[in-house]
Automatic annotation (TrEMBL):
Record's protein name: Uncharacterized protein
GO process terms (BP): homophilic cell adhesion via plasma membrane adhesion molecules
Listed CDD domains: Cadherin_repeat (cd11304)
Gene3D superfamilies for the chain: Cadherins
């Protein structure tokens, strides 16, 4: 019989031949205790029995009965576009209650990674890095599914999500629509709308502003005949026109990011002589 160590009934012992067997495996958990010390009592039969004692130490072998668990189910981070490949994005981490190979965790991106935009490098680190140069104008967010796998048999896994928002930088130049000529009647009132000129910029910031400037080769005074709303690009007539005195004007519109980038948009105004 057992003297001690089997209070939970994990084992039984054959009282005739001393064979010890597992009776209830639910009490054998390496994570609770990795070895068990049983005191076995032997007793002679008869009126005045004699006793003998032995210690049996049972070492448990770890079974892979725990899955890796991430410290968070959902991770979120931001990363700037335009950084070189290999830029740090985030570090994810999982734990495993087993031991040895059964708790040796490697990480893999298993979904949500178009163009292999991200990589975990090295795989044991959980460090997520960029694997391409990110471009917010192509894709502004990613939603990665990351798996943690232990090395046990059978292998166990856990998953977490990592949301990555790509932050805009001002890496695109504005573009103007093709140059057009605009006509205006001679007797148009001062303040009337001549045309609206706006450039396109795929970045979100900064907001563009506009200014008028003289066209190359045209009279600088042409600019003073018009005014432009610097935010909307609306061009208004600023002084009365006289067809006999001047029959056409040429001005350029410059946007705020184009200072070093000629040529700006050219607007040629013709009077409608009617
Ligand atoms: Ca275990
Ligand atoms: Ca495990
Ligand atoms: Ca821009
Ligand atoms: Ca951008």
């Amino acid at each position: 019989s057992f003297g001690s160590g089997n209070e939970d009934g994990a084992f039984d012992i054959n009282s005739n031949n001393g064979l010890i067997r597992v009776r209830d495996p639910t009490h054998l958990d390496y994570e609770q205790r990795s070895s068990i010390r049983l005191i076995v009592v032997a007793r002679t039969e008869g009126h005045s029995p004699l006793f003998g004692y032995a210690t049996v130490k049972v070492d448990l072998i770890d079974a892979n009965d725990n899955s890796p668990r991430f410290t968070q189910v959902n991770y979120a981070t931001v990363v700037w576009e335009g950084n070189s490949k290999g830029t740090f994005v985030a570090q994810v981490s999982a734990t495993d209650d087993d031991s040895g190979e059964n708790a040796a965790i490697s990480y893999h991106i298993v979904d949500g990674n178009p163009d292999n935009a991200f990589a975990i490098d090295p795989p044991l680190s959980g460090i997520v890095k960029t694997n391409i140069v990110l471009d917010r104008e192509i894709r502004d967010s990613y939603y990665l599914t990351i798996m943690a796998s232990d090395q046990g048999q059978p292998q166990k896994t856990g998953t977490a999500m990592l949301r990555i928002s790509v932050v805009d930088i001002n890496d695109n130049k504005p573009t103007f629509p093709p140059h057009t000529n605009v006509s205006i009647v001679e007797d148009a009132e001062v303040g009337s709308l001549v045309t609206t000129v706006t450039a396109n910029d795929v970045d979100t910031a900064p907001p563009l502003t506009y200014a008028l400037m003289p066209s190359q080769g045209a009279a600088a005074t042409d600019v003073s005949a018009f005014s432009i709303d610097r935010f909307t690009g609306k061009i208004l007539l600023a002084q009365p026109l006289d067809f006999e005195r001047q029959s056409s004007y040429s001005v350029q519109v410059r946007e705020s990011e184009g200072r070093k980038r000629p040529p700006p948009f050219v607007l040629v105004l013709h009077f409608d002589a009617n």
